[in-house]
Every structure is written in structure tokens, then in C-alpha cells.
Recover the amino acids of this structure.
């Protein structure tokens, strides 16, 4: 027999196919997986957040907060003062009342219309030119802006259009005023050049409006835009805070200034780590290599089969990477939340997610080591109080692993997390008493936080577990329970198309389960795999004795070689049907292995007899199953149980003596034929299996007490006696 590995290695092997493809065996892929884990571990350790308790705005500070480092912070209050000072030299901007302008233009047009002297003295085109000049004047007055010299300079500095802005400040806005002559000179120069208008027309219109009184208004939109631009030009004021200075006093109302200081201190603490520094990078790299070396060395010594299967290794690494990624996201949201989530979620339970997934998909021992590894690395890399974080995550993870060991249904995951939460609550209370922090609100917050994270863990496990089972083709107890459902399409077909085979499979399943449990193997797997081990018989069910209802044996029409080929074909047919139905590879392995490379002895003997007893004329290979031989204890137990149950039907008397003799002969023949060379069953275990199989089959075939025939009684119906 092969050398033994650890018992847990053998158990985890049952969850995966015994055959390895290119992905499983490629060393290049294995190194790539390890590199991915190393890169993730490096990033997890190197890019660390800094925890600074930032209380809520307008809340009362529970204690003093002192600066841990020299830093500068954006002082909004000082910036506001500077910006207000910058606005002191900015004057107002005025414009002419639009209504006032329209009235003056109308007045001028009426003047032209009703002044007969002007009509008599005007030449042919002058009258029309005056109307054009009035439109130009209206445009000029609407665009005109008035302000002081300093404001005009500021507008030019900031890129405001100033071609229509002139220097003038009225004494009051409550009374109409005459505009100075230089304003009209500027209007005349810009809007009434000699090339466009006759000098007489220009003089007339300028003189008319020059002696008019005007109502001025503030140009609010332009003033607002100018002030906004002036304030934007003032740089944000940064104020220096020295290490050791008190930022918030106990009992103070927390203001926006306090929060800005604390956030700046947090950024300064993060920058002080110098993540891009060669020294820091070297330290993170060295720590990563050390932890990775311990990780690989542990599995090389204790679980060598995991390191030689890329699928198992990639599954483990995937779970660890997912957990570390979710941990970093959780840390980011907690530390960067505007509310004080750090006080509420002081010890987030992040490791139990990986513990439950690894325990389900690999083994409890691997889950235990991985949980300890993750808890230590997370306590170092995440910005939480490491003592409580490490304690609670380890206790919750170990509790979950102990409860997950017997997980059979997906809904039980919530019960597992409930048990882990209960243990975490006890640890929380103990930790608070141990550290003498008996604050009722703090204890309640930690308990509620643990409840939230364990509930989230349950939801994530329910979501991730089917995806990982399907993606990595892992068979768990949860999926086994689903395949045991009688409503499964393949089992339903078996009950209809080969009912005798189905009944045989049920009995063999009971035998195999009892024997497996007796030696500590996976009884549930034996029960489920046995239900499917003979599904290939559906294709030619009439060729198998248990499905033949009449006295005619169809094998009488075939040669021994043909009969043997038909019988042996049910293995290959079973593999095809199982793959079409999407059965897990370990169950398909049982279909291949439950006959191993045994001889179809009945038809082999018939062929030898046909050759007048000369074995040399018979090719034994034509009567042997293709195999492979059983490669797990469970597969070996199913082989024995299958042969034992089938052979027991030929016994005339079903008692302990006859069954013991039968099982001894079957096991001895299998051993002599080398069928158990690869399944790691020891002689001690075989002895236990034989005893349990005899006991179980005797219990299943027990006799009942014969009941006497009931006496005939006569009954009176409508006055007549009826027997």
C-alpha cells in the first residue's frame, strides 16, 4: 500500500477529483498563483491606513485629542477673513436705469418728430441719420458701466471686459444726476466717429442727452461675479500645528475647524510612513517574503498534497485574497466615514468568512491555520486596536470551524455564525472586564458590531460557497445533501428505468455509510456516491439480473465475451450520464472505481468451460473492468459493499455465519487481486468494515414473527348474514 499522509489530507482529497489536468499539474501556473498571493500580501501589508478618531460635527468631545505630529491644515476661518479683507477695496459698479434710458430715447424721438423748425432746416438724409444715431446712443447707454478707479484696475487684472466701463461714482442713488462731460466725450469718441455720423448730428444728439438727468442702479450680477473672482484669487490659508499641541479639549463642541485639523493630522501621519521610500518598500517586501515562506513551509510539511494541486492551492489563495480585499474595503469605509464608525466598529470580525469557506471547501485543519495566519497579518496591517481585534477574530473563527464541521445544509450557515457570534459576545464581555473598561455603551456597541459582521459573513458565505464549489469543482457535504434528493433527474430516471438497480444502490448505500462511519471516513459521501454508482445500467437495464422480471435471461442469446462487454459497459455509460448531469468528479471517480480492474468471473468461467477448461485460450483482459482501482477509502468500502450485497442474494440462509464467510472470501479475493493497493485501507480498518457490513446486512434482512390468519366473522346487513 502507499505511504500515509495525514488523515485530514485524505479527507480533503475526497472533495476533489483524483485525476489532474494540465492546470492542476503545471509548475508555471503554480508559481503564478504563489506570485499572485505574494503580491496581494505585499499590498495588504504595505498600504496601511492610519487610525485617528474623528468625532462627529457639533458633538461633545469625550476626551482630549492631542497632535501626534507637526502638520499644516487648511484654516477655513482664516481664509474667510483674508477673503473678506480682499473685498474691502472693491467698490460698486453702476449702470443707467434701463427704463430711464428708454424714456430718454422716446423723448428724443418725439423731439425729432414734432419739432417743425428742425424739419424745415434739416437736409434730405439728416433726419434718417438722427434716428440711426438714437439707436446707437441707446446701445451705448445700455452698455455703459461706471465705477471707481481701483475697482476698474481690479477688473482689468481679473480679465473682465472694461471697454464700456468708465470712472465715475455718484453721491447718491436716490436722486437723478447729470453725468460728467468726459463720459459724453468718451461715448462720442467710441460710438460716433466722423466716418459714421455727420458732426452736426453727433453734436445734436450728444447735447440732448448730456443735459438729461439720469437714474443710476447697482449692477448686482457683475458685482457678485467680480467679488467671487477676487475671493478665488486669495489662496487658502494653511495654519501650522506642532506635535503635542491640544487640538480638542474634553467637553468642547466639535467644530468644522477641529475636524479639518484631525483630518490633516491623519494625512500627515500617513505621509510620514513614506510608502515610496526604498527603506519602507524593502521592509514590506522582507516581511512579505518571511510570511510567505512560513505559509509555504507549513503546507509543505503538513499538507504536501495541497501544494502539488494547483486547483486546491488556487482555491485557498482565492479565499485569502477575497478576505484581505474585503478587509481593506471595510477598513477604508470605517476610517473614512463622516460619522464616528470607528467607535462603533472597533473590532470588525473579518477572518470568520475565510474560516468557514476554507473549512467547507478544504478541511478544518487548513482553515484553522489560515485563520490564525489571517488574524495575525490583519491585526498588524489594519488600523484597528490589535489586541481586541486579534482575540475576537480568532475566537469567532475557531468557533465557526468547530460548528462548520457538521454543516449539511446552506441554511445552517446562519446557525454556525450565530454560534460564533455567541462566543464572540462572551469574549467581548471578558475582554472589557480584563482591561477594566466597564462602559455599558462600549460593550453594547461591540456586541452589535459583532452581530452585524457575523450576519454579513453568513450572507457572504451563502453567496460565495456555490460559486467556489462550481468554479473549482469542489464537492462539499452541502452539495452532497442536494445530490441525495430523490427528485434529482438522474435518480428519478433510475427508479423508473432500472428499479432493481435503484433498490440495490439504496441498500449498498446504507452498508457503505455504516462501514465508513465506523472507521472515521465520510459516510455521507459513501451514501450519496453509491446512489449513482450504477446509473450506467439504465442504458441496458434488461441485461442485469436485478432488473429482469421474467424467467428469460437475455444472456442466453449472447456469447460470454459479448455478455461481459455489456456488463462492463455500464461503467463507461455511467461516467457519460454523470458528466451530462453535472455530478461532482469524486462521485464520477467512484463510478469508475467501484469495480476497479476486477474480473467478470461468471462469464470468464463460462468462456473457459467453452474452451474445455483451457485458460490459455481465453484472454483474461477481455473480462476485466478498465478501472482504475479504488483510490480512496470510501471507494474501497463501496467496492466491498457492492460485491457483498450482490453476492448475499445468492445465499440460501442469511445468518451471521454465512455472511461472515462470504465477506471474508470477498475481501480476501479483492486483496489478492490487488484492488486495495491504492485506497489506503489498513487491515485493521478492513476488519472493522467486515464486521459492520455483516451486522448492518443482518439488521436489514431480519425476519418477522409470523402472524396467524384472522378468523372469519359474519356480519348482519339488512337482516342477512354475510361472511
Amino acid at each position: 500500500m502507499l505511504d500515509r499522509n495525514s488523515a485530514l489530507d485524505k479527507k480533503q482529497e475526497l472533495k476533489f477529483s483524483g485525476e489532474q489536468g494540465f492546470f492542476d499539474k503545471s509548475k508555471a501556473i503554480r508559481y503564478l498563483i504563489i506570485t499572485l498571493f505574494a503580491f496581494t500580501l505585499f499590498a495588504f501589508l504595505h498600504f496601511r491606513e492610519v487610525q485617528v478618531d474623528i468625532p462627529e460635527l457639533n458633538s461633545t468631545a469625550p476626551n482630549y485629542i492631542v497632535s501626534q505630529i507637526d502638520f499644516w491644515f487648511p484654516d477655513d476661518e482664516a481664509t474667510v477673513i483674508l477673503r473678506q479683507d480682499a473685498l474691502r477695496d472693491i467698490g460698486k459698479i453702476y449702470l443707467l436705469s434701463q427704463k430711464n434710458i428708454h424714456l430718454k430715447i422716446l423723448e428724443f424721438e418725439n423731439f425729432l418728430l414734432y419739432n417743425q423748425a428742425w424739419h424745415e432746416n434739416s437736409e434730405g438724409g439728416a433726419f434718417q441719420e438722427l434716428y440711426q444715431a438714437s439707436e446707437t446712443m441707446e446701445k451705448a447707454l445700455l452698455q455703459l458701466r461706471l465705477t471707481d478707479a481701483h475697482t476698474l484696475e481690479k477688473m482689468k487684472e481679473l480679465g473682465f471686459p472694461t471697454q464700456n466701463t468708465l470712472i465715475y461714482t455718484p453721491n447718491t442713488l436716490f436722486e437723478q444726476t447729470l453725468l460728467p462731460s468726459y463720459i459724453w466725450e468718451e461715448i462720442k469718441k467710441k460710438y460716433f466717429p466722423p466716418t459714421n455720423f455727420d458732426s452736426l448730428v453727433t453734436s445734436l444728439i450728444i447735447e440732448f442727452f448730456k443735459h438729461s438727468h439720469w437714474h443710476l442702479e447697482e449692477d448686482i450680477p457683475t458685482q457678485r461675479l467680480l467679488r467671487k473672482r477676487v475671493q478665488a484669487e486669495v489662496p487658502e490659508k494653511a495654519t501650522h500645528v506642532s506635535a503635542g499641541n491640544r487640538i480638542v479639549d474634553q467637553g468642547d463642541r466639535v467644530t468644522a475647524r477641529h475636524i479639518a485639523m484631525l483630518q490633516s493630522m491623519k494625512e500627515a501621519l500617513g505621509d510620514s510612513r513614506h510608502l515610496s521610500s526604498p527603506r519602507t518598500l524593502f521592509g514590506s517586501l522582507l516581511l512579505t517574503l518571511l510570511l510567505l515562506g512560513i505559509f509555504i513551509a507549513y503546507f509543505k510539511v503538513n499538507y504536501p498534497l495541497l501544494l502539488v494541486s494547483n486547483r486546491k492551492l488556487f482555491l485557498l489563495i482565492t479565499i485569502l485574497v477575497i478576505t484581505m480585499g474585503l478587509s481593506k474595503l471595510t477598513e477604508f469605509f470605517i476610517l473614512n466615514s463622516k460619522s464616528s464608525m470607528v467607535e462603533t466598529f472597533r473590532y470588525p470580525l473579518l477572518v470568520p468568512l475565510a474560516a468557514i469557506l476554507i473549512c467547507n471547501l478544504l478541511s478544518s485543519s487548513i482553515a484553522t491555520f489560515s485563520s490564525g495566519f489571517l488574524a495575525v497579518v490583519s491585526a498588524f496591517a489594519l488600523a484597528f486596536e490589535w489586541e481586541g481585534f486579534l482575540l475576537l477574530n480568532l475566537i469567532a473563527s475557531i468557533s465557526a470551524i468547530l460548528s462548520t464541521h457538521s454543516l449539511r445544509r446552506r441554511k445552517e450557515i446562519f446557525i454556525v455564525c450565530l454560534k460564533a457570534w455567541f462566543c464572540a459576545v462572551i469574549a467581548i464581555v471578558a475582554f472589557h472586564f480584563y482591561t477594566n473598561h466597564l462602559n455599558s455603551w462600549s460593550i453594547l456597541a461591540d456586541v452589535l458590531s459583532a452581530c452585524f459582521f457575523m450576519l454579513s459573513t453568513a450572507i457572504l458565505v451563502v453567496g460565495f460557497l456555490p460559486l467556489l464549489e462550481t468554479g473549482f469543482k469542489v464537492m462539499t457535504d452541502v452539495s452532497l445533501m442536494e445530490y441525495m434528493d430523490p427528485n434529482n433527474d438522474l435518480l428519478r430516471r433510475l427508479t423508473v428505468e432500472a428499479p432493481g438497480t435503484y433498490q440495490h444502490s439504496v441498500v449498498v448505500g446504507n452498508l457503505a455509510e455504516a462501514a465508513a462511519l465506523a472507521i472515521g471516513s465520510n459516510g455521507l459521501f459513501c451514501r450519496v456516491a453509491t446512489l449513482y454508482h450504477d446509473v450506467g445500467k439504465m442504458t441496458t437495464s434488461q441485461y442485469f439480473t436485478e432488473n429482469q422480471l421474467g424467467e428469460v435471461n437475455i444472456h442466453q442469446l449472447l456469447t460470454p465475451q459479448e455478455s461481459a462487454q455489456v456488463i462492463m459497459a455500464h461503467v463507461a455509460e455511467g461516467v457519460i450520464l454523470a458528466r451530462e448531469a453535472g455530478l461532482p468528479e469524486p462521485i464520477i471517480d467512484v463510478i469508475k472505481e467501484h469495480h476497479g480492474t476486477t474480473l467478470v468471473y461468471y462469464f470468464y468461467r463460462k468462456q473457459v468451460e467453452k474452451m474445455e477448461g483451457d485458460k490459455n485460450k481465453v484472454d483474461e483482459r477481455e473480462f476485466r473492468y478498465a478501472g482504475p482501482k479504488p483510490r480512496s477509502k470510501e471507494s474501497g468500502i463501496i467496492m466491498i459493499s457492492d460485491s457483498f450485497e450482490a453476492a448475499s442474494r445468492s445465499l440460501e440462509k442469511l445468518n451471521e455465519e454465512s455472511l461472515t464467510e462470504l465477506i471474508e472470501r470477498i475481501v480476501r479475493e479483492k486483496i489478492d487481486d490487488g484492488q486495495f493497493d491504492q485506497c489506503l485501507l489498513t487491515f485493521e480498518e478492513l476488519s472493522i468494515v467486515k464486521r459492520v457490513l455483516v451486522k448492518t446486512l443482518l439488521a436489514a434482512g431480519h425476519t418477522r414473527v409470523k402472524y396467524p390468519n384472522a378468523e372469519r366473522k359474519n356480519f348482519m346487513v339488512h337482516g342477512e348474514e354475510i361472511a
